[in-house]
Fold this sequence. Notes:
The complex is a heterodimer. By secondary structure, chain A is of the alpha+beta class. Chain A has eleven helices and twelve strands. The longest helix of chain A has 37 residues, at 144-180. By secondary structure, chain B is an all-alpha fold. The longest helix of chain B has 39 residues, at 3-41. Chain B has two domains: 3-216, Up-down Bundle (Methane Monooxygenase Hydroxylase, Chain G, domain 1), CATH 1.20.58.220; 224-263, no CATH class. In chain B, 40% of the residues are buried. Chain B is globular and about 70 Å long. The model of chain B is unreliable at 246-277 (pLDDT under 50). Chain B has helices at 3-41, 44-75, 79-111, 119-145, 148-177, 183-215, 219-229, 250-256, 259-263. In chain B, helix 1 packs antiparallel against helix 4 (119-145), helix 4 runs parallel beside helix 6 and helix 5 (148-177) runs antiparallel to helix 6. Chain B contains nine helices and no strands. Helices cover 78% and strands 0% of the residues of chain B. Chain B starts with a helix and ends in a 14-residue tail after the last helix. The A-B interface holds A 86-89, 91-92, 95, 116-119, 308-309, 311-313, 359-362 and B 22-23, 25-27, 29-30, 33-34, 37, 40, 118-124, 126-127, 130, 136-137, 140-141, 144.
Amino acid sequence: MTALWLLVGLAVGAVGAALFLRRAGTREKPIVDTAEEAAARVAAATELRDARIQAALDALPIGVIVVDGEARIVLRNRASDDSGGDTHNEVLVQAAVQHHLRAAVRGEERSQTVELYGPPRRVVIVHAKPLAGNGAVATIEDVTERSRVDSVRTDFVANISHELKTPIGALAVLAETLIDESDPTVVSRLAGKTVNEAHRVAKIIDDLLELSRIELSGDLVIAPCDVAALVAEAASRNSYAAEQRRVEVRVCDVPPGLMINADQVQLASALGNLVDNAVKYSEVGGKVTVAAFPENDGVTFVVTDSGIGIPTHDLDRIFERFYRVDRARARGTGGTGLGLSIVRHVTSNHGGAVTVESREGEGSTFRLHIPNRPADRPADRPAG
Amino acid sequence: MTMNELRKSFHHDLDDVRAELVHLAAFVTEAIPRATNILLTGDLEGADYIISGDDEIDARALDLEDRCVQILALQSPVASDLRQILAALRMIAEVERSADLVCNICKAARRIYGHALDPSLRGIITRMGEQAQQLYIAAIEAFVENDAAKAAAIDDMDNFLDALQKQFVQAIFESHSAGNIDLQVAVQLAVVARFYERIGDHAVNIGERVRYVVTGWMPEHKGAARYRSRADDTGQPRRPNPAALGSAIDDAVHEHDEPAELAAPDSDANGESSGGV
Lengths: 384, 277
């Protein structure tokens, strides 16, 4: 009997052991994760979230830097690493950022416009703000273009008022003086001055109308133009002014048969203005050279003078309407301040580019590149 | 504090000194074209801004010097670390002096206010300003990047600035002879040319210090070695005579002027740090 119970006991034990071993071999997944798995999953999610935040920040055009309560950087995007320019510009921007971030960590919100003289000139706005909890965030925004457009707009209003008001004011004063004047010599002199001022206003209005026509003309009349004839016309159009100032206008040999598909009227106007400008700002007895040559499936016109040159800081502004490098001197030249604007618009209408190199006392070189365009079919051209 | 912590602290301090020095030099680099424009446009307000800003440069330069002295006193650096601190001390003086010269250009702008300058004079002033700034940009980059080759190029770049100064002086004579500028303006302009030329020289000196930090050698070592190689009346190699030079640092000089040391870059020429303490 005892042996029987022993056998039963052994059998039950064996079955129990077999069941235990089977469960251990095919262990089922528990419903709750182990601590390691949970931590790994949280870490992966955090990594993914951080990568997304970093990618989103990197896509921003402005620089972003986040610091902790000790002003240590915890996050920064690509734009904050390189704000462009030379090392010293970068150093000055980063120094401003650090300075304001330290203040923001202490709870002060700060903003500063950093104007870098360059060259190239740049304007950067640095803004630092405390974050809820602790730490701070700084943004670095390059507003160079916005600032340039603002100053162009402001200067334009000031310049146009000056250019239009000056001759009209002079006309009014001259006319008032004439009313009370009986001496024929004085009347004649004042009348002469009145005519000059009236011509000046007329010239400004003509140039404004031409500029407006060029700006608005969406449809260019593209036809084959003889480059040599264009250059010769530009030179001859200014021959009188050149003679008066004893400036030699020399036309370089243009490759024979060189043609360009362009709007002849507009191109002639642009070239004429470039030569006019070169003659006006040349010293008496100076020399102006006009050349043209084929380049990059188009034609490049080069007008060089040995004149007074343009200050470096004005070079990027001379194509603006009514912009004057030296207002006092400009009035003596008889220009309207619109010539180079016309050149820029003609170039832009043709999809070309105009550049200038200049040094004060050494003269200026204007390069006008006009790409070749397919000519209009005769039927497309406006009648007349 | 363990040795490791001390080294970490030293390198942290050294990084701070370098960053502040670069910041000061960047101020000067930025101020050079500003001063040129102030001079050319007669911008009196701008001149005031630059001149009053010089006090801040002076204060920061003094603070930076104090920090270098503190590092020397507390951490006793050796080899390339020592060279870094010594070079920084010298460079601070160069940068501070350059800032003074920029101020002097602005003061000259006040003195010649209202006088028109010939385009040729204006053109050369613009060129001198650009070249002086280029030298400073190269000096900063060489320092930041520890680039001895770039630092060596600054000396050659300076030749161009020197040539411009000579050209400018000639143009001043011509303008004065033509009756376009009076004598006082001519003198002021000549002095302005000298200011630009000196700014260039300070940039060259910074470049030489960068070479010293990286290689342990400076161009002056060549001249010094040449001097010592010339035998004196007794047939012995010459040694500098501190008394004749009006210097009181006799023992210190003799201790350091071993010919073998001066003829070539020192043994730590690769610029590797040999420890901060």
